[in-house]
């Protein structure tokens, strides 16, 4: 399990782009990226599941508000390969998160917390973080 919490002075604002490069381990079952205010208030939970909790090659989105999970949304497009580095980009506004996957396809997830600035980032799972950049 790898976990990286963001430095307290790191902020992701509407109009910026969050770039993530990750290399899933050869035996990776899943990895997740969380963006929000803190561990109890996550605007976007992005969970790439190779084989985890009954899901195979599925991206599961959710949000966490006051420690309570919302309804999960599932996406069948799964351009991740164990052992191969992948890069994707995240943008957002007060209504939606926009995720560009490694194959160039786009996914949307509602910004259920509705804010335009987040300071909490968490990357976890069986993957190595190659790079994270906000610009």
UniProtKB/TrEMBL annotation:
Pfam family, one: Gal-bind_lectin
Superkingdom in the source lineage: Eukaryota
Domain Galectin: 4-135
GO MF entries: carbohydrate binding; galactoside binding; laminin binding
CDD domains per UniProt: GLECT (cd00070)
PROSITE patterns: GALECTIN
InterPro entries associated with the record: ConA-like_dom_sf, Galectin-like, Galectin_CRD
A cellular-component GO term for this protein: extracellular space
Entries under SUPFAM superfamilies matching the protein: Concanavalin A-like lectins/glucanases (SSF49899)
Record keywords: Lectin
Gene3D superfamilies associated with the record: 2.60.120.200
UniProt name for this protein: Galectin
The organism of origin for this protein: Gasterosteus aculeatus aculeatus
């Amino acid at each position: 399990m790898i976990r990286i919490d963001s430095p307290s002075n790191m902020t992701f604002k509407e109009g910026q782009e969050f770039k993530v490069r990750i290399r899933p381990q050869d035996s990776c079952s899943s990895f997740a990226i969380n963006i929000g205010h803190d561990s109890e208030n996550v605007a976007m939970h992005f969970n790439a599941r190779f084989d985890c909790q009954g899901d195979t090659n599925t991206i599961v989105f959710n949000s966490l508000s006051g420690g309570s999970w919302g309804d999960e949304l599932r996406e069948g497009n799964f351009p991740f390969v164990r052992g191969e580095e992948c890069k994707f980009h995240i943008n957002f506004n007060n209504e939606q998160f926009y995720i560009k996957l490694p194959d160039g396809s786009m996914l949307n997830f509602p910004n259920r917390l509705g804010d335009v600035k987040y300071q909490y980032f968490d990357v976890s799972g069986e993957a190595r973080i190659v790079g994270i950049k906000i610009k």
